[in-house]
Design brief:
With 205 residues, the chain is mostly helical. It has one domain (8-35, 67-204): Serine Threonine Protein Phosphatase 5, Tetratricopeptide repeat, CATH 1.25.40. Helix content is 46%, strand content 3%. The protein has helices at 8-16, 20-28, 68-77, 82-91, 110-116, 120-128, 135-141, 144-153, 168-174, 180-189, 198-204, and strands at residues 99-101, 107-109. It has a two-stranded antiparallel sheet with strand order 1-2. The longest helix is centred in the middle third of the chain and has 10 residues, at 68-77. The radius of gyration is 18 Å and the shape is globular.
Length: 205
């Protein structure tokens, strides 16, 4: 993996193969906010120019934003490393609900990353600190009633996609036995082909 262009597409593929727990910190360390503008692997903001009236409200920006590199590292570590999550959050509490766009509107929080990796320990820690749960988090945790209530409120959520395009069904799969009831419920709402999650098989070996 070292020395390769680890794109968002490759990241998604790696996550589905269970490689993200091994390679995420190394791969994305190269894409920090300090990267030179000429670095094609660094984060870059899409070109934009208003073709509409600017909002009348003008933000004061009295406080400095949380550092993007630190937020990026926090989200990456939340996929696999609880001690580092605790260390960074202790250093900067504002990271808790930090949200990154990995490109093309692929938004992710630390809670989102931990959820689609099935890291219940990290998810529970983030929730204890006041993290904002969503339907994907509830699905992985096996919390049937919140998931059912949300889908009854808005049935279209059955096709909702989380970070990197991972579905509700996928989140229920990575929750394993504790989310089996939720997976059965999701299948009763909309049956889909359930593909094996390679990194779950590796954990059992």
């Amino acid at each position: 993996m070292a020395g390769t262009n680890f794109s968002r597409r490759k990241f998604t593929a790696a996550a589905s193969l269970g490689l993200i727990t091994t390679y995420a910190p190394q791969a994305f360390a190269r894409q920090d906010a300090g990267a030179a503008p000429s670095d094609k692997n660094g984060p870059r903001e899409a070109d934009f120019q208003r073709d509409y009236d600017a909002p009348s409200f003008k933000p004061s920006w009295k406080k400095a934003q949380v550092n993007r590199t630190m937020a990026q590292d926090f989200v990456i570590y939340a996929h696999s490393d609880l001690p580092m999550v605790k260390k960074l959050l202790t250093r900067e509490p504002g990271l808790l609900n930090a949200t990154l766009d990995w490109g093309g509107g692929d938004w992710e929080t630390a809670l989102g990353g931990a959820s689609h990796m099935g890291r219940r320990d990290i998810v529970e820690y983030l929730l204890e600190q006041g993290g904002r749960p969503d339907i994907f988090c509830f699905t992985m945790l096996g919390m049937l009633e919140p998931v059912r209530s949300m889908l009854e409120l808005q049935p279209a959520l059955i096709d909702a996609k989380g970070p990197h395009g991972f579905s509700l069904h996928f989140h229920a799969q990575v929750g394993q036995e504790k989310s089996k009831k939720v997976l059965n419920y999701l299948q009763s709402v909309k049956e889909v082909e359930l593909r094996p999650v390679p990194f779950l098989r590796k954990k059992k070996n």
